[in-house]
Amino acid sequence: MARIELQKVAHSYLARPAGEQDFAVKELDLTWDDGGAYALLGPSGCGKTTLLNIISGLLTPSCGQVVFNGRNVTEERPEQRNIAQVFQFPVIYDTMTVRQNLAFPLKNRHVPSDAIAARVTEIAGMIDLDSVLDRKAHNLSADQKQKISLGRGLVRSDVNAILFDEPLTVIDPHLKWQLRSQLKKLHREFAFTMVYVTHDQTEALTFADKVVVMYEGEVVQIGTPEDLFERPMHTFVGYFIGSPGMNVAPVSVEGNRAILGGYAIKLARTYADTPVGAKLELGTRPEFIRFAGNGGAKDGEGLPVTVKRVDDIGRFKVAKVELAGVPLAVVADEDTVIDGDEARIVFDPDHVHIYADSQLLEGVAQ
Amino acid sequence: MNKTWNNGAWFMVLPVLALVAFNAVIPLMTVVNYSVQETFGNNIFFFEGVKWFEEVLHSERFHAALLRQLAFTGTILLIEIPLGVMIALTMPRQGPWVSVCLVLMALPLLIPWNVVGAIWNIFALPDIGLLGRSLNGMGFDYNYTHQPVAAWFTMILMDVWHWTSLVVLLAYAGLRSIPDAYYQAAKIDSASRWAVFRYIQLPKMKRVLTIAVLLRFMDSFMIYTEPFVLTGGGPGNSTTLLSIDLVKIALGQFDLGPAAAMSIIYFLIVLLLSWVFYTLTMRSEDQS
Amino acid sequence: MKRLSWLVPAFYIFFLMLPIYWLLNMSFKTTNEILGSFTLWPTNFTVENYVAIFTDPTWYNGYINSLAYVSINTVISISAALPAAYAFSRYRFLGDKHLFFWLLTNRMAPPAVFALPFFQLYSAMNLFDTYIAVALAHCLFNIPLAVWILEGFMSGVPKEIDETAYIDGYSFPRFFVKIFMPLIASGIGVAAFFCFMFSWVELLLAKTLTSVAAKPIAAVMTRTASTSGYELGLLAAAGALTIIPGAVVIYFVRNYIAKGFALGRV
Amino acid sequence: MTLELRKISKQVGGETHIGDVDLTLASGTLTILLGPTLSGKTSLMRLMAGLDRPTAGQVLIDGTDVTGVPVQKRSVAMVYQQFINYPNLTVYENIASPMRVAGLNRQETDAAVRRAADLMRLTSLLDRKPLELSGGQQQRTALARAIVKGADLVLLDEPLANLDYKLREELREELPRLFSETGAIFVYATTEPTEALLLGGNTATLHEGRVTQFGATLDVYRRPVDRNTADVFSDPPMNFLAITVGGGQVTAGEQTLPATGQIAELADGRYAIGFRPNHLHLARPELPAIAVTANVAVTEITGSESFVHLDFDGQRWIALLHGIHDLEPGSAAEVFLDPGRFYVFNEDDALVAAPDPAEAA
Description:
- The complex is a heterotetramer of chains A (366), B (288), C (266) and D (361).
- By secondary structure, chain A is α+β, with helices and mostly antiparallel strands.
- In chain A, the strands form five sheets. Chain A has a six-stranded mixed beta sheet with strand order 6-7-8-3-9-10, sandwiched between helices. A five-stranded antiparallel beta sheet of chain A has the order 15-19-16-17-18, with no helix packed on it.
- Chain B has 288 residues and is an all-alpha fold.
- Chain B has a two-stranded antiparallel sheet.
- The longest helix of chain B is centred in the last third of the chain and has 32 residues.
- The model of chain C has no long low-confidence stretch (mean pLDDT 86).
- Strand 1 of chain B pairs parallel with strand 1 of chain C, so a sheet runs across the interface.
């Protein structure tokens, strides 16, 4: 398995890119450790597939270098980079049986046939295709076909990385979680370097040890699922991860208090010098705002809000409130009773972040 | 495409049914009518039953013509299908040259069949034809108007020149329907050129190749105009294919009975071979 | 190998162009120069053959007649095939599979078989020697082809578009003309190209059903070759002119050729 | 205007797509058709629209039988899952198409189109062709066309299913504004229970072509009439535990359970207890709980929540926890069931007891 490094890589589909906006992938430096599971997460058109094609060798980046285990492979074609890829729709050799499909990459590499047979049966067992090994690949279900594509990568012991390009798109929603859990189990057993492209946060956060969130061609954050949830580095990450997304509201900051429409919100950190002229915003997740009055808070505590709408989705309620005209979402657990259109809310200081021009401000812990 | 059941759709099919039936059923009935009767002129017919069919089936002349036809169709299929596929494989997949190639290749298909015969008639003449002159120049004793072998060679070369483009275009259409991901997967599996052809391109081209073989079989089995204009069935009757022989009997000697019987047999052979071929490929497709 | 592979199609096209070049070469020579010497390029370049064709009514009428019945046939075939293809593409009805197969079998009918009966049928209808006769006769093989191609293109348009139109209140005819036909315009173009092509190239039926008034160019040419001696130059020029309509028509459908030849199936 | 389906059934080639459905929908209401793929949602909608004719039963609008009336003559609009627009018309012409067909004059059409386009935030895209737009914008065009002519019946067949995850969330916010726009009957098909709960209104749960329950969305969620409805209405699927009650003893496999909460007053017999994933806790809650051991198969994280897949003697359970938890697969874990949240189903899957909404609400 390989340690993959992207040094100063950027790519534009235009022959002569004029400025930043012509770049599908803006300049970035990324290192993927050997055996790590990485997800490339972002809305469609954010450049994640472009980045995947740069790693697989289908695309030669406009600038920068791609390095596998210290070897510069920027100019090399996919077959020389020794990677495997599972595509959006199942790509299999229809006229072959499942066994022949799995043996195909090894046969092309002139591996002796007994070694092939052993390896194929072993892998087929792992991805439970052993029961259909001798059936024609053509008439299997979509998820079984995707497993064949994956199997063609796994049989090769020397594969550097396995790339996934939104592999669950064609899978029936009810089968998705089964394939997800199998893929996660397989990654634990094989520890292959894995790069998984998706726009679905559940897939990304479930698979990856580290998630690379991209937005408009830029990597806005790389982190574990906890990092993305607890400390979004960019307002987009806060908005994109979690449902409903992070509340973002314009504020002014004084020391350890944020002023929102005349109300002061206590912060866990102090922000001495905020960058002058920057657009300051407060970001906090709906899960970290609670209604005063239940949960043993003293009365008169919290800030007054008007309740616009309450959606009860069974396991919790999402209240749409307004604090001094600024819309906020608050998550309350299923048993809280919200009646009338006046209430008071309390912020959890540890989970309130301040952003300058959409980038997280560190601030000093008290 | 789940289609809804609606017998009202029959009204939309009626015009087609009427026009095709008028042109197919009535003439067929007249042919059937003649094939079972004898006439000595001035419109008096005597019912003869299957006499003509027996006669045709036993006639040496029919066997010879049928043999020539099978030989001709077999040869051109063996040449044109592989040649067409090979050319399609070597064509560039995209870029400005593609439509130029396709238009130029399709040109022979647009030339009236008799003009094709006329072109080759001139082109292959030993003295004033480019082909005839260069072959003789190279030491071959080539004169298609006298030597049966030369006549056959010219006739086959003319058909290859005339129809291979159809196979190229069909194969190319089949290739273009293959998504890029298949070629990427093959590269990743480091498949050889042959493996790419055998396991990706050929299966994907199976459908259009079935159409190509079916069309080429039908057209070549029924060919009349080009060979007739080129050799008139000669020298002698070495190139008298089924259609040419049939027209000679029907319009030449004007004995309707045998001509009609032969027509029926001819039509049934084409129908049978096409049906056998069609079900073979369809069954192998479902089973694969 | 990849870079040199374009040589194969290039050589094949060269092979295709050779006879046509030879035909053109002939058409610009006088008959005795053709018979007299073997030259790769006309020594005394002449357009007399073309002039002869454009002035002699029996010749240029041949073109007019051919173009006439070919266009009529194309119009009849397409307008008849459109509703039928829609029916095959959208609905299942009693015997639809058999009807579709029967239509294709007509393409398998050897024209030679039908020469004589057609002659009698159209004479009985006293349609002999008219454009309509040849146009109708060619429907025998053109309509099945048009239905097959149009059905292929129509199946590419999702059924939900039809339903959305019905929901919007479109009646079937208005939907068909205003929404559906523009969507399959390329299919109609390709089907028309095929009808034009197969009708333009056919000789046997066209010759059998005409004598003077509707005699097609193809028939005029065969008469020249056999009877009035060996006017090769004239024949070559006439042949060259028959290539032009095809080349013009194919120009319009050039980017759909591959899809069309796969009969819309790809 | 009321739409009534009386004893509607639809057989296609011997298969029953819809089995005698009775439904009455009043105007100004939103009805969600909730069920897994192939449960008959689309078939039922096509019968309501008049695109298909029922094999048996009647479709009535305001009491008059319209079963045979073609769809052109009905006041209906429909949005498909795969963003269906006229590819050769611009966005403006797409939205205006129903008005033009109805023959309205130019100004009226223009005003209506612009209003619908504003509502769907398409004003800047009016002269573009649909295929040039993103998936979300194409579906907004279809939605705008559906509401522009103010049809009495608006059918939406899983309109958000093909969209990006976050885009789906945004459009779902805009739908309530769309529903309140006209007093029509809105029917919305989806496979996702969360979407049904978010959109509110009434819900009809479908299982293999039958409507298993019809009522206010929250009521159907809280008191599913049978096990099928309970399963349809919970994603991830509801967990079940087979128990037998005999001689004052409640046993599940070898483990005996304390008879508290709903299972206290059960008559002897075999039952299946159903409990939602968010009522399966990995930390001991304060309320009395039943502890059971199971081992962790795999954990899935969705950002704000985590699904822990557990194996409990061969059965697959799912626990849904707030925040991010990534447990080691294969490890044993003690899980706690809250008897107050049990749904109890008897042997023929009918609901016997449900958590008391007041107490659990």
